[in-house]
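call fold(seq) -> tokens
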Amino acid sequence: MGPITQQEIAQALGISLKTVQRAFNQPGSVSPIQRDRIMEFALKNGYTPNRSARALQGRNRRRIAILTMDTPRSFWADVASGAEVAAHQIAHLGFDVVYKRAGSYEAMMRHLRAIARDGVDCIALVNHTGMEMERIVSWVKRHEIPFAALNADFLDADRICYLGPEHRQQGELAGEVIGNLLREGGTVALFTIQFDEGSFMPGADILRQRRDGAVSVLSRLPGVEIHEVVVRKDGEVPNTRTIIDQLRSVPAEKGVIFWIPPFTDYFVELLNSSDPSEMPDVVGFDLSPEITGFLQSGRVTAEIYQNPTLQGYGIVKLMETYVESGQRPPRDRYIITPQVIFRSNVDQRNNFDIIGEISKPLIAPQI
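ret:
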């Protein structure tokens, strides 16, 4: 026997063929009880909708969008690369993908209004400390646009799901790397940024999460001293000369520079002008092409990799599945496992370890 058809589903459930068709093509137009009944029967009887055929039947194309900051540029360029791969995969299924980057709240709102005006079925947003995300999320909710969280979660918002790193876990991994570098004890100069509490939505302060995770590991290591240096406080211009002096004071032997934010221009300049043999170990979270060169030259020891390419790919696949099925993904959070990049494995950093799960179509109702 061949696979069950939509007509047979309708006959078996005693409903019209049109209702079954709407359940698969326009799930929001069918009551949740009726839709779950149809989906459950379809799953039990091995029915899989022919999505490519439906996309060619003249229906309007679906649009999903990603809206992020524009810095660090290399990181978001990698996110865009992953999103582009997924966009090519789903184009024949009737999906278009829009990706916009913005450097300010005003620019982000301009992109968002244009995306909404042209029509959008789902959007991915990044929680950020400097973008007035509470206002942006409120606008999205007011216009009834479903949204997913990318890279930094919205802890108090009704988003579809989250895909990205667990930032405290990243910090803990960095702490373990530093512990291996300072087996006999030493000094960790921890450089970070402070933001005013209450000035952002919960979940956005990823630098603090990384810092707390690392300190939880480092504080247990015998003979390791932590000296914390605030590179910049929210709204304050940094005294770069003072910070450079503090960087230069870290001992080359039994010393580690732990740089949590993206590398600043003056730190990059210092690395460029330094002899690697006279530098302490450097550990961070940035992996731009320039930092990759520092890994290869020995000026940087290790970077904790967030796999932005996978993040861009995965969020597109999650939104596509949500729009296609009308159901939230089975998991609330999809966590990208952090990876330590050294000189020895700098060319092996794209690990698409959860793409198969994200790409799996959702047919069964969420339980």
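The mean pLDDT is 87.
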